[in-house]
């Protein structure tokens, strides 16, 4: 059973002419029978080269099993259940990414070939990849920033604690100086009051390692 190119082209004329998607027809061996201009531009082939185009040469080798599985799915169930994604090799050796599904072309004797409808997702996938890279980089920078902020906050807290203890120490010294400078107080009174003042000024946080008393 062979595909009649003229009949198929006439049947799908509007689809080939007006669709913004990649439209192509291939037989059950994967050999192209026809394709619209968008498909040819995407693959880098001319219309005269259509007979040379085959899915066996287009699909990346790592995805051939998926391609054959999809074809068998169409042959068995008469339809493709989900879209397929392929890495396709252009004529110039570069690759594009497509999302595609196939529609069986039938006659009363069975399935003759596949009408493929694909979207070129190369730009979309590249954008998604770059977006993911940017998000990952932002996450990395955010974690790094959080660590620096946490470290700085800890240093500031430690400095604040040290400053508070230093103020207590200075207040203690100031009060002792006032005692000493009070001409009305005896040596014993100065010593007794100083004993009460000193502990309040020199009980430091052990972590600061500044205190004279604990």
Please tell me about this protein's structure.
By secondary structure, the chain is an alpha+beta fold. It folds into two domains: about 120 residues, PAS domain (Beta-Lactamase); about 80 residues, no CATH class. About 55% of the residues lie in helices and about 20% in strands. Strands 2-1-5-4-3 form a five-stranded antiparallel β-sheet. The C terminus is likely disordered.
Structural class: alpha+beta
Overall shape: it is rod-shaped
Low-confidence stretches: 205-214
- The helix content is 40-55%
Tally of helical segments: 7
CATH secondary-structure class of the largest domain: Alpha Beta
> Can you say what the CATH homologous superfamily of the largest domain is?
PAS domain
Set out the fold topology.
Layout: H1 5-11, H2 13-18, E1 22-27, E2 32-35, H3 37-43, H4 55-58, H5 64-77, E3 84-89, E4 95-107, E5 110-120, H6 122-181, H7 187-202
Antiparallel strand pairs: 1-2, 1-5, 3-4, 4-5
Care to give the gist of this entry?
This protein is an alpha+beta fold and 214 residues long.
List keywords for this structure.
single chain; 214 residues; alpha+beta; Beta-Lactamase; 2 domains; five-stranded antiparallel β-sheet; 5 strands; 53% helix; rod-shaped; disordered C terminus
């Amino acid at each position: 059973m062979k595909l009649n190119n003229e009949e198929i082209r006439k049947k799908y004329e509007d689809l080939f002419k007006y669709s913004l998607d990649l439209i192509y027809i291939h037989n059950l061996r994967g050999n192209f029978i026809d394709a619209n201009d968008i498909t040819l531009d995407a693959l880098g082939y001319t219309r005269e080269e259509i007979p040379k185009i085959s899915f066996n040469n287009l699909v990346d080798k790592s995805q051939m099993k998926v391609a054959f599985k999809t074809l068998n799915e169409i042959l068995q169930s008469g339809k493709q259940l989900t879209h397929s994604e392929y890495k396709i090799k252009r004529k110039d050796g570069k690759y594009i990414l497509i999302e595609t599904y196939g529609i069986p072309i039938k006659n009363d004797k069975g399935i003759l070939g596949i009408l493929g409808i694909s979207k070129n997702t190369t730009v979309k996938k590249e954008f998604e990849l770059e977006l993911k890279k940017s998000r990952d980089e932002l996450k990395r920078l955010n974690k790094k920033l959080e660590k620096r902020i946490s470290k700085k906050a800890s240093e500031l807290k430690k400095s604040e604690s040290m400053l508070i203890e230093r103020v207590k120490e200075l207040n203690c010294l100031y009060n002792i100086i006032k005692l000493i400078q009070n001409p009305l107080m005896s040596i014993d009174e100065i010593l007794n009051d100083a004993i009460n003042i000193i502990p309040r000024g020199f009980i430091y946080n052990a972590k600061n390692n500044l205190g004279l008393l604990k």
